[in-house]
Structure formats: C-alpha cells, structure tokens
Design brief:
The chain contains six helices and nine strands; from the N terminus they run αβββαβαβββαβαβα. By secondary structure, the chain is an alpha/beta fold. The chain is globular. Homodimer.
Length: 226
C-alpha cells in the first residue's frame, strides 16, 4: 500500500521549527551569566517592543527538525542551552524542543516575552519571563496569569527605560511579591537609561532585585550570533 503523501508531509512538519540561528557564546544575562551557552533562536514574534535588539528574527528563518537541532547543540560540547527569539513560544513545537533538550541532559533556559502561557513548559526549564514596562510600548501584552506559575527555578526580567518605568516596575514587584517567588532582574534599556542611574535607584530603595547589564553587549555590542 502506498503511503499517503499528505500524511507524510504533515508528520514531517510536526517535528520542525523555524530557526533564525544557532550559535555558541557566553550567556550575557540572568542567573547563568558568564557560562558558555548554545543559543537556539527561533523565528517570529507577535510583539514589537520599541527597544528590541533582535528584529532580524521576526521574519525569514530556516525550517529545522528537532533531531537536527539536538545534534548541532550536542556538537558544541557545552551543558547550557538557551532557547530564545523572537518569541520562541509562538511556535508550539518549542515545547517539544525544550523537553528533548532537558532529556538530553542540558541545563536549559527559555527567554520568553511573558505574553504567552508558560504553563506547559517543562518544569526542568528555567523560564526567564519578561514583564513589559510602559516604556516598552507593549505593556498591554503582559499575561499576568503567568505570575502565579513562577517557581524558584524561574526568573523575571524588567527592561527599564526611564524613571517612570522604574517606579512602575518597583510597584509590580511589591504587589505580586515577585522577589519571594524567584529571582527578579532589572536591566537598563540601552541608550535610554544609564546603568549607573538604575543602579543608584536600586541601592537607594534597597530593592530586592538583581541589577544586571547585558554582558554580551559589553563584549561584542549588538553583533548577531554573539
């Protein structure tokens, strides 16, 4: 009996993701900053944050099978893997990729915008969840239902554009007691807020958050693939 070509094509698509790039670098931020890390950048994002530094990932990309991606990641010979975008969860098969990376023994983090449900992400993954500030121009996209799902294994990140963003973010941390759930990270938006100003505000307020700068930008500016 001949196989159904349509069924075969559907099965093949079920194991594929659209990928912008896969590369080895240092993790530049969050809890694992400094570790050699393989980055798997998925294509596409439903948000348009005004400070986005990876707009090249919105379109294009190449279809890759999960088996192919696992083999490439393993070939780099490091433990840490970061799945990022764009917004990786905008592709549903991202959940399968995350699970299989964990099954392969990797230490896996997920960079997600906070606009999509994180409930089905493998619990072995450290979910680095953005909370979009008013200065991002996408504050309305925050999915607040994600916050009760956070655990000590996860992290929350705020990109701060100005003093108003800082005060708004400080209030969100206090209202939801985020620092009691997981690590909370405050970063200055490049070219909009000086790192020193943000650091001074955090120290002055004794805020229970971690100040961070993006290590990869200090080392390599905005060079793609670094």
């Amino acid at each position: 009996m001949n196989a159904d070509p349509a069924a075969a094509a559907t099965a093949a698509m079920a194991d594929r993701l659209k990928i912008t790039e896969v590369f080895l670098s240092l993790q530049g931020e969050a809890r694992d900053a400094g570790w050699p890390t393989v980055f798997v950048r998925l294509t596409g994002c439903p948000l348009r944050c005004q400070y986005c530094d990876t707009t090249y990932s919105f379109f294009g990309g190449e279809w890759r099978t999960i088996d192919d991606l696992l083999a490439e990641v393993a070939g780099h010979g490091v433990c840490h893997v970061c799945v990022t975008g764009g917004e990786p969860l905008s592709q549903k098969r991202c959940l399968d990729l995350l699970r299989r990376l964990c099954d392969a023994g990797h230490v896996v983090s997920l960079e997600t915008s906070g606009a999509i449900d994180i409930a089905e992400v493998d619990p072995r993954v450290s979910r680095v969840l953005d909370i979009k500030t008013p200065g991002s121009a996408e504050v309305a996209r925050n999915r607040w239902e994600n916050l009760p799902l956070l655990t000590a294994h996860d992290q929350v990140k705020f990109v701060i554009c100005n003093r108003e963003d800082y005060e708004w973010s400080r209030a969100v941390v206090a209202e939801h007691r985020l620092h009691e759930r997981c690590d909370v990270l405050f970063s200055p938006s490049k070219s909009e807020l000086s790192a020193r100003a943000l650091a001074d505000w955090i120290v002055q307020d004794r805020l229970p958050v971690k100040f961070q700068m993006q290590l990869h930008k200090i080392l390599w500016n905005d060079e793609p693939g670094r």
